[in-house]
Amino acid sequence: MVAAEPPRAATTETIVPANGVAAADELLTAGQWRLIWRRFLRHRLAVAAGIAVLLFYLVAAFVEFFAPYDPYVRETSHVSAPPMRLRVWDVAERRLHVRPFVYATTLRRDPVTLQRIYVRDTSRRLPLRLLVRGDEYRLLGLIPARVHLFGFGGDQRVALLGTDTQGRDQLSRIIYGTRISLTIGFVGVALSFGLGITLGAISGYFGGLADMVIQRIIEILIAIPSLPLWMALSAAIPFDWPQTRTFFLITVILSLTGWTGMARVVRGKLLSLRDEDFVLAARIDGARGARVMFRHLIPSFLSHIIASATLAIPGMILGETALSFLGVGLRAPAISWGVLLQEGQNIQTVALMPWLLLPGAFVVVAVLACNFLGDGLRDAADPYA
User: Fold this and answer.
1) For the ranges 14-23, 334-343, 359-368, 373-382, which has the lowest average pLDDT?
2) Phi-psi label, residue 309: left if phi above 0, alpha if psi -120 to 50, beta otherwise
């Protein structure tokens, strides 16, 4: 009699798809930058902020094309005109239009107060058009052109964000202000981080007298309040200097006071890494101090530097805006967000022409976008996040 076989224990077999194995192998062999990129793409808010920052700098590079009008042209018939709303529903005809449009306006005077009143004319529609011919300009200061991204039909200028006290289109001036405000942030961070990385590396790698002198300078600069220091240095700029020279000096001023934080970060990193095996191997191989610092040590935490630079750009933008708003930075006829906000310093402007404060909204959006992008890059670069 044959004994019955004992029941076999149920076994489970995990089947891994071939593409899953390939993805796992690719992840194990991926380099540092690929891993950072994968982690960054998971941060949706940071990705959206990065797209917004790229759009801001795209507009800054080609402001002549994106601005509908010349920012210096004055329209005397539309001084201090309120924003003109973009519509798709025609009130007069009671029907929907596929192409957005605005209604033309007519200037009238209040017979009692003599105040300007802009009356909407529903019988005249000005449709939105793309790639239209308008005011002449030189793209990037080199290529003559007349094509703008958008415009409106008819002989009346359309001010989607209103006009200022001299009849200049506010939207065009805000777009032109993007170039200076964002360029100061980018160039200022590049200069300040270049100085901070160099001095921080010297301080952390060599130590001794160099470390003591650099750290005392950093402590003195940190002890001085930033805004009064900026104002004192900016006040020394002559009023009759050209815009380009003033722009350069404002950038240098912001850079000379913004390098201390990065210098301390680099110093701390080098103090912890200068005795590692790969550094000793480089020294034995005959590498000099500069090569060890900039070829081996600093690239080991370059991702952290990139994230910190992204977070530092908003500070530069706010610094330029504050200086120009207070009248000690860039001055008219230069166009920046801070210069545009100068017109909103009195209560009469805030009460009667609140649209002149719209450059402040663009400052807020740009600063938030840079901060969200920097947070995403910092989280992606942190292996323990």
Assistant:
1) 14-23
2) alpha
Cα 105 off chain centre by: 35
Residues 186 and 252 in one domain: yes
Q: Which strands sit side by side in the sheet containing 143-152, from one edge to the other? A: 87-90, 95-109, 116-139, 143-152
For 112, the domain range is 84-158
Beta strands in 59-94 (DSSP E): 87-90
Residues 142, 144: Cα–Cα separation, whole Å? 7
Answer yes or no: do 319 and 180 share one domain. Answer: yes
Rounded to whole angstroms, how far apart are CA atoms 244 and 339?
15
Crossing angle for the helix pair 243-256 and 226-235, to the nearest 10 degrees: 150
Q: Is 223 found in the same domain as 91?
A: no
Provide the angle, in degrees to the nearest 10, between the axes of the packed helices 302-325 and 32-41.
50
Q: How confident is the model at residue 346 (pLDDT cuts 50, 70, 90)?
A: confident
More confident residue, 238 or 365: 365
pLDDT tens digits, 131-150: 888 888 888 878 888 889 98
Total structural domains in the chain?
2
How far, CA to CA in Å, does 205 sit from each of 64, 172, 261, 264, 293? 47, 49, 17, 12, 7
Are the C-beta atoms of residues 211 and 204 closer than 8 Å to each other?
yes
Asked if residue 324 belongs to a domain, the reply is yes
User: What are the residue ranges of helices labelled H in the chain?
Assistant: 18-29, 32-41, 44-61, 63-66, 170-206, 208-223, 226-235, 243-256, 260-273, 277-284, 289-291, 302-325, 337-341, 347-352, 358-381
Q: What are phi and psi of 218, to 5 degrees?
A: -60, -45
Nearest to 368 by CA among 43, 39, 48: 48
Tokens describing residue 248: 């350069």
Give residue 385's Cα distance to chain centre. 25
